[in-house]
Amino acid sequence: xxxxxxxxxxxxxxxxxxxxxxxxxxxxxxxxxxxxxxxxxxxxxxxxxxxxxxxxxxxxxxxxxxxxxxxxxxxxxxxxxxxxxxxxxxxxxxxxxxxxxxxxxxxxxxxxxxxxxxxxxxxxxxxxxxxxxxxxxxxxxxxxxxxxxxxxxxxxxxxxxxxxxxxxxxxxxxxxxxxxxxxxxxxxxxxxxxxxxxxxxxxxxxxxxxxxxxxxxxxxxxxxxxxxxxxxxxxxxxxxxxxxxxxxxxxxxxxxxxxxxx
Amino acid sequence: xxxxxxxxxxxxxxxxxxxxxxxxxxxxxxxxxxxxxxxxxxxxxxxxxxxxxxxxxxxxxxxxxxxxxxxxxxxxxxxxxxxxxxxxxxxxxxxxxxxxxxxxxxxxxxxxxxxxxxxxxxxxxxxxxxxxxxxxxxxxxxxxxxxxxxxxxxxxxxxxxxxxxxxxxxxxxxxxxxxxxxxxxxxxxxxxxxxxxxxxxxxxxxxxxxxxxxxxxxxxxxxxxxxxxxxxxxxxxxxxxxxxxxxxxxxxxx
Lengths: 262, 254
What we know:
The structure holds two protein chains of two kinds. Chain A is about 75% helix and about 0% strand. By secondary structure, chain A is mainly alpha-helical. Chain B is an all-alpha fold. Chain B has one domain (about 5-250). The longest helix of chain B is centred in the middle third of the chain and has 31 residues, at about 75-105. Chain B is elongated and about 70 Å long. In chain B, about 60% of the residues are buried. The interface of A and B includes residues 87, 113 and 158 of A.
C-alpha cells in the first residue's frame, strides 16, 4: 500500500492549526450573538484531532517503547495546563491563541528535554511534541466552548472543570488522537484510514460534549447532530478503507447455539 | 489582565514545592514494576499495563486521598501522608489481585528474570523462569519496590496538590481569599495536578523504554536522567500552574 498518496504533514498542520483556531474564534465571536454557533468549536476540535492523530502517527512510527497512549495523554496533559493558563490570564479574545502558543511552547520544552536529557533518538521528537501539544490545546478549547458556551475563565471553570466534563474531554479527546495509530499500526498502516478513524472518534467526542452543553437546546441539538453526521460518515469511510486494505473481510456469523455445538 | 508579579512573588516557595513534587513523581515511576503487554500475557515480570496508566492510576488515587483529607485537615504532613498511603493502597490492591490471577488463573509463579536471587526473600529465581519468557508475575522484590514507588508518587502528587491549594487560598491584595472547601478551586487544582502527573510520568517512561522490574532492575540506574528531565520540565509547568490557579482567586472563585 506504499503507493498510496499521502497528505503531507505541513498541509495537515495548516488544516489543524489554522482551521482549528479559525473555528474556535468563529465559535467565540458568533456565540455572543447566538449560542447555536458554538458548534464551530466542535468542528475546530475535529480538525485539531485529525492533525494530532497524524502527528502521533509520525512520532509513534519510530517506536516510543512505551505504547502509543502515553504520547496522547502527554498531549492532553500539556494542553489542559496551557488552556487553563491562557484563559486565566483574563485577556479576552487573545486567550485562546495565547493558550495555543503556550501549549506549543510547553510541547517544545518537553520535546527538547526528552531529546537532550533523557536521550530519545527520535529525530522529529521536538517538532512532533510541539504539534501534539498544540493539537491537544485546540481540542480542549473546541470542546470546552461547546460545553460552556463561552471561553470566559470563570464560566469554563464552572461548567467544564467543576462538573468533571474536563475528564471526559481528556479521555475522549485523547482517544481521537492516540487510538487511530494504536489500532492501525503495523506494516499495512495507511494514512487515510488512520485519519478517517480519528475523525470518527472526534465525532463521538463531539456528540458527548454536545450532550453536556449548557449553551441551550438549539446548541445541543445542532452539535449532537453534527457529531452524529461526522461519526456516521467517517465510520462508513473507515469501514470502506478497511475493506480496501484487508485481503478479505469475511462474516463469521453468530456464535453457534448450544444444540448446534453437540 | 491579572497582576502576574503580585501572583508569582508570594508563591515562590510553592513553585519550588511543585517542582519537587514533579521530580518525586518522575523517580517513583522507576520503582513501579511494570511489564507492559508482555506482562499481561505472563511473559514478563511486572503488572500487565503501561507505565503511564499505572503511575497515573496510583497518582490519581493519591490525589483523591490527599484531596479528601485536605478538606478536613490542612496540615502538610497529614495531606502528604494521605497521598502516599492512597497511592500505595491502590498499587497493593492491583498487585495482589494480579498475583492471584497469575498464580491460580494463568498458573505461573511470581519470578524475576533480572536477578538470580530475590534480594528480599533470598529465594532462587532463575530456575523458575519459563523458557522464552522474561519472568512472570510479581515477585516479592517487585511488590515491595512498587509500594515504594506508590509512596513516592503519592507524596509527589499530594505535594503538588497541597502547593496549588495554598496558592489558591492565599490572601492576595484586594481580593477576598478563597476557602479551602471551594469546589471550583478543588476542581481546578485536581485537574492541574492530574495533567501535571501525566506529563511527569510520561518522561520517565521514555527513560525506561516502557518496562522495568523495580529497584533491582539494571535500568533503575538511569533514574537521575529522568529526575533531571522532570525537574527542568516542572519549572515552566509550576509557574504556569501557579498563575492559572492564583487567577481563580481574582475571579473570586465564582
